[in-house]
Write a sequence for this structure.
């Protein structure tokens, strides 16, 4: 009986990862746009794959230009660091890779330019 329970627990544990939500997700507003950015894994030092969803009035926007900038300001004995990337719409979200060169608090700016030429920015931050 113990072996059966152990087996069932192991199978349940392995399947939980297949149906899990994003390991990291954050939401905010860029003007009248609702912006959510997420990653399938926790954000870490190095390259991270980011998915960005943009909605206006609950409707998904799929034809915007979206870019992301992550930066850490200069501190005593350390220069400023940043990474910029344009996201492309694919498989239901805007996707791109960004690199965090070290742990700490990073500022995140996501700029969304809609097809009418209006630019709106989400300011956020993440801790690694």
């Amino acid at each position: 009986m113990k072996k059966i329970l152990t087996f069932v627990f192991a199978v349940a544990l392995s399947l939980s990862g297949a149906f899990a939500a994003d390991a990291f997700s954050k939401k905010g507003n860029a003007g009248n746009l609702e912006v959510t950015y997420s990653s399938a894994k926790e954000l870490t030092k190095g390259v991270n794959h980011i998915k960005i969803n943009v909605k206006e009035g609950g409707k998904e926007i799929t034809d915007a230009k979206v870019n992301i900038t992550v930066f850490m300001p200069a501190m005593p004995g350390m220069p400023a660091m940043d990474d910029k990337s344009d996201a492309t719409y694919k498989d239901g979200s805007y996707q791109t890779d960004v690199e965090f060169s070290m742990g700490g608090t990073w500022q995140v700016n996501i700029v969304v330019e809609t097809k009418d030429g209006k630019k709106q920015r989400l300011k956020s931050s993440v801790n690694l």
Residues 22-127 form a domain with the Immunoglobulin-like fold (CATH 2.60.40.3340). Strands lie at 24-30, 33-39, 46-56, 59-60, 65-72, 81-90, 93-100, 105-113, 119-127.
